[in-house]
Design goal:
single chain, alpha/beta
């Protein structure tokens, strides 16, 4: 495949990105694109499956705030771009600047814990805050595994529900990080696109996942949601969720990068059977916690808050772990958990110091 003419340069692409993103972010994003085009595309423009893991870990810099490669390294790549690779870069920059396409969708994958996650719109892009608490929860559960053993024998795997699974990142991150055969995880979501992508990510991580994972399309606000979940597994021990919690007023202020690409149902809580294309934001719950309140009730209905039914009864393992949007949601979420049988709660802050996760316990 012939190489691109010597007068090709990254400068016009950098200038175009800078007009939208500012100079520093533009430099970083262009470097990530350059890394990706080398790792994931050969001269013919075909994606290299064997290189996707390498590409994903380079993409990790995006949300883990690690530095991209130096400008000197990037400039050295100019002479090594094929015509097809130049075309990909120009299209990527155009999509980013003119269509507001998020960089994660452009790159198409990212790591999440030990899992590699493929991405495409409109399925919610995993955030670093979610990865952070997932890893912390995995460490907590692994530390408690010995306490669940009886005479050296481990009980049945923990049945874990990942509510609003999206890409499947939480379910798969836990499956890869938990002790082997210590959990059976089911992810559910209302979105056809999400379940299809989650299934693809399950196949992508089949050699990395040490615990069983399955995915199901299910509306968690439907009247029969509890019975359908009990058809999936006869009992549940833990519910984890990154649910919709963005308030209508916050959603109105989000960048086009989010509003024009990611499914609003994954961001803003909506009543059962609401058509997202016809919804009026003014009619929605202004607090952003309506879905979480329903989830606490659902967790109770499937026995998660039963003080004696679970295999983790009598332990200090949380039963319900739910991501929230900050300090203003802590009180109503904690109250909802208490109202539905979780008699003790804990709040985790993220690395930025924001109240990010509420954990519900059932203590004697």
């Amino acid at each position: 495949m012939p190489r691109s003419p010597s007068n090709n340069t990254l400068i016009p692409l950098l200038r175009k990105l800078s007009e939208k993103l500012g100079a520093q972010q533009a430099k970083n994003e262009l470097r990530w694109m350059v890394d990706h085009v080398h790792a994931a595309l050969d001269d013919s423009g075909q994606r290299q499956v064997s290189r996707l893991e390498k590409s994903a870990h380079r993409a990790a810099r995006i949300w883990r705030d690690q530095p991209a490669r130096s400008a000197e390294e990037v400039e050295q790549d100019n002479i090594r771009f094929s015509t097809v690779q130049w075309a990909w870069l120009r299209q990527a920059v155009s999509d980013r600047t003119e269509k507001h396409k998020p960089l994660q969708y452009i790159l198409g994958n990212q790591p999440f814990g030990k899992a590699n996650i493929s991405l495409r719109p409109p399925v919610l892009i995993p955030r670093w805050e979610t990865e952070e608490w997932m890893l912390r929860l995995v460490s907590m559960l692994n530390a408690h595994m010995d306490s669940l053993s009886v005479d050296g024998n481990r009980p049945r795997p923990l049945n874990i529900l990942d509510a609003c699974t999206g890409t499947g990142c939480v379910a798969l991150g836990m499956a890869c990080g938990l002790e082997p055969e210590s959990a059976a995880i089911a992810g559910v979501d209302i979105s056809d696109e999400a379940i299809e992508l989650a299934e693809e990510n399950l196949a992508l991580n089949s050699l990395l996942a040490k615990n069983k994972v399955q995915f199901h399309k299910l509306d968690l606000q439907a009247p029969d949601a509890a019975s359908r979940l009990l058809d999936v597994m006869p009992s549940w021990d833990i519910v984890v969720s990154n649910p919709p919690y963005v308030t209508p007023s916050e959603y109105g202020q989000l960048d086009p990068d989010v509003k024009e690409w990611e499914d609003i149902r994954a961001l803003v809580p909506m009543p059962y059977s609401t058509d997202p294309k016809e919804v009026n934001l003014k009619d929605l719950d202004p607090s952003g916690v309506a879905f979480i309140v329903n989830l606490a009730k659902l967790a109770r209905d499937i026995g998660v808050s039963d003080s004696s039914a679970s295999s983790i009864a009598g332990t200090s393992i949380p039963r319900l772990v739910v991501e929230v949007g900050g300090k203003m949601q802590i009180e109503p979420v904690c109250q909802a958990l208490h109202d539905h049988g979780f008699n003790s709660t804990e709040v985790w802050k993220d690395m930025a110091g924001t109240e990010r996760v509420v954990l519900g316990y059932v203590k004697s």
